[in-house]
Amino acid sequence: MNLLEQVHCMVWGPWTLVLFLGVGIFFTLKCKLFQIKGFPYWWRHTAGRILSGDAAVKGEGGKGISQFQSVCTALAATVGTGNIAGVATALTAGGPGALFWMWISAVIGMITAYAETMLGIRYRYKDKNGHYLCGPFIYMERGLGMKGLGILYSFLCLMCSLSMGSMVQANSAVSTMEYTWHVPELTGGLIFTILLMLVICGGISRIGGVAERLVPAASGIYILFSLIILISCVEAVPGAFFAMFESAFRPEAAAGGTAGYAVSRSVRYGISRGVFSNEAGLGTLAVLHGPAENTTCHEQGMWAMFEVFFDTVVLCTLTALVILCMTGSAPEKIPYEGAALASWCFGGRLGMLGEYLVSGSMVVFAFATVMAWFYLGKQAASYLAEGIGLGVDTGAFFSSRVYPALFLGAVFFGSEARLNMVWMLSDIWNGLMAFPNLTALLFLSGEVTLPDEFSENRKKAH
Hints:
Belongs to the alanine or glycine:cation symporter (AGCS) (TC 2.A.25) family. The chain is mostly helical.
């Protein structure tokens, strides 16, 4: 095992998952199971408002980006290759029970996402150009008075944007285009990079506008075809659920040996893939909700909860059920893995249309993720440049000129390269981001509160 692999094992060791779960459980108890008991309330104030056509959510008459655009931008960062390739990997490595533990990570992560997003909105402020600065680095500086911790976080976020948020996603998209539609790597890389440049040159308003159209459409199509497959093999669905719970709670696990090892892999892969998919605890949702106008910290916190729910409980579950139903609840016996396994499963019922669906979803989700990560990195670059003493003007130049060039270069390079080392570095940067953010959340936990209306309703009920 080389040094990089050793660092990776240290960063994503069992204590990391314990930290994610521990912080989530702490906020779950502090907020009195709000993500579960308050489901009707926060659903009514998030998805329910969109379904009712609430103009305020959609941003009519407001400036900046609307609540819905900020939600779609945040979903763009979380809804990505992890919903397809990540789920398939979790099932082949951890067994059907991994899906159950993905649910657990989502339920716990929902309240973590609520806390970090709420704090982000509470401490955000506008710069001299009228743009919001928001994210963990802001509440670390203004809430904890620890600017150094904020600088560290912004550096890690910047490095993550130039690896996982750009190179890895672009490589997945272009490789998929080459495999499915035989688009040459160079051509695919140029198309991907040019389209991205056209979006990001319009700033957060254009990013939010594109996300508002791209994410709901792509997610809707993916959900529709997943449901078509599940309805066509509905007789296999109960067996898939049985295999999931049987694998997650296998009775002989207590005896140790192979069974115990299988259960431990189920827990590890389920929780880690869940965290990778929904990003709750990494602090990214706090950055992406920052530009939302006409909102409150509680409202955006509830939107963050909805995003984790939609990403993992809806999209990841549909992918997992399709795979389990099509493989007889034994995905590890199929000679495919990752996106190839998902493509094989969708193609088994829908033919070439199924393969095109998975490939198209991978490309669209990857593009949306890159688009959102550009904004994340730009915010981090701006804070980092000013934080290390480059000055406001130099910091603005770095974030508005230098960083976009670096990001687009990383996207194009990533689309052409083989990224085994970059994948590992991306995981390391991603994991390291969690440590300062979760630490800050714990120290600022006293400022995480429930919506006044919900608290008052609970008092009346009692």
